[in-house]
Specification:
elongated; 7-stranded antiparallel beta sheet; alpha+beta; binds guanosine-5'-diphosphate; about 35% helix; 4-stranded antiparallel beta sheet; D-amino Acid Aminotransferase, Chain A, domain 1; binds manganese (II) ion; 13 helices
Length: about 400
């Protein structure tokens, strides 16, 4: 889960990390008041959307008068915004941050991420801030200092200082950065963060270090123990299909391939995805309809899969243990009728009431391909998806 910059700022402040003074506004009417409070004599106005690259897209500007602050708000609030990092997607701006305009001497990068190859969190620091760290990592990897640590043994300010000091010729600046990095590591651990970035961490007025941007991503699986964090969730920012699935009690994760999967049980869902890959295909999603799903839920799951325009075939793979095969068959038939299913549908049923289920499918009058084994079902659905693509490639 991601939170907005204005929310991240509050969290940094709670951990004693210096940030620029400022205020978030949700309407143009608040803009002049906020401007007057923080103008020195200008302010920085920043759109609050969960995407990087706002600066380059015109979403971060200096405003010199209350009128300019208002103009910025009325230009962006309630309107779609996108950047080169948002992959063609746009998001509606609901808030603008108006902060004092600090004069920046240098822009640094400070982040903490989990390095899965090392099985450890790592502090990343670079003097080359204000630009994308991925670019620095490729062009000038030696410009990034990496400090690995463990959750049970957080790095001290002194330990961080001894590493970061190498990038500077004096002590005062790296000492402040080390202090901030140590506080950020505590936040990272205590709040179950999976990624946080301060870019830029700015040197202002020749000697003071301030966080001028903040991006924090939390581990969704730990949100239950951070109700303060969970409360900051912006419902607009969720994947539309994942949100819909949660609403109807289904466990759906979008994967990006072209074979939609509807499976009962997380283990079987993973195995099904593996089988699709082994058959040379790409699953569109993970979808576990659970052990006791109703026909209604199956129908909803089906609709959610079909909302992804990349889907070129659907594979339903159900082992009827608690769940009965005829219930699944009913849901599949209902959904196919309601949605006017265009893509090929492959169904593999096994277990309780399997014969009743297969009969229902066979007698439905719908074009449903029934398979006996997972392997066969995976191969057939990958093949049918390819055929569907070949037939429809010109019309899309
Ligand atoms: P991003 O492009 O979405 O990462 O947005 P940032 O918050 O990093 O803003 C982009 C750039 O705007 C930064 O690299 C800074 O150069 C500048 N900037 C951001 N905040 C401030 C600020 O408070 N004062 C000044 N002077 N510049 C800022
Ligand atoms: Mn930034």
């Amino acid at each position: 889960m991601k939170i907005h910059e204005y929310q991240s700022r509050d969290l940094l402040e709670k951990y004693g990390i210096p940030i620029a003074l400022g205020q978030v506004v949700f309407s143009t009417a608040e803009a002049a008041g906020a401007f007057k409070k923080f103008a020195n004599p200008s302010c920085v106005a920043k759109v609050q959307v969960l995407m990087g690259g706002r600066g380059k897209a015109g979403g971060v500007i200096h405003v010199h008068t209350a009128e300019e602050a208002e103009a910025f708000c009325s230009r962006f609030l309630g309107k779609p915004f996108s950047t080169y990092q948002s992959a063609g997607e746009s998001k509606i701006v609901h808030a603008v941050l108006i902060s004092e305009d600090r004069r920046i001497d240098e822009e640094y990068y400070l982040g903490i991420a989990i390095d899965r190859a090392h099985d450890q969190p790592v502090i990343l620091f670079s003097r080359e801030g204000g630009v994308e760290i991925e670019e620095v990592a490729i062009a000038k990897p030696e410009a990034i200092t990496r400090i690995y640590f463990s959750y049970t043994n957080l790095p001290t300010k002194e330990q961080i200082f001894s590493q970061i000091r190498k990038q500077f010729s004096e002590d005062k600046i790296p000492s402040q950065i080390a202090d901030i990095a140590a506080k950020l590591a505590l936040l990272f651990m205590e709040k179950d963060v999976s990624l946080c970035e301060i870019n830029p961490l700015a040197l202002c007025g020749g000697s003071t270090i301030i966080a001028l941007d903040a991006k924090i991503v939390f581990d969704d699986n730990a949100l239950f123990r951070h109700l303060d964090v969970a409360a900051m969730k912006d419902p607009d920012e969720e994947d539309e299909r994942e949100r819909k699935a949660k609403e109807v009690g289904l466990n759906y994760v979008s994967m990006g391939g072209n074979v939609g999967c509807l499976v009962n049980g997380a283990g079987l869902a993973m195995a099904t995805m593996d089988m699709i890959k082994m058959a040379g295909g790409e699953p569109s999603n993970f979808l576990d309809v659970g052990g006791g799903a109703t026909a209604d839920q199956v129908r909803e799951g089906f609709k959610i899969i079909l909302q992804d325009p990349r889907v070129e075939a659907i594979l339903v793979n159900i082992f009827g243990g608690i769940m009965k095969c005829d219930v699944i068959a009913e849901g599949v038939i209902q959904a196919s009728r309601e949605i006017d299913l265009k893509v090929p549908l492959v169904v593999r049923l096994e277990g309780t009431r399997v014969d009743e289920g297969r009969d229902l499918l066979k007698n439905s009058g719908l074009q449903i391909i029934s398979c006996r084994t997972i392997k066969e079902a995976a191969q057939v659905s990958v093949q049918k998806a390819a055929e569907y693509r070949a037939q429809h490639v010109h019309s899309r």
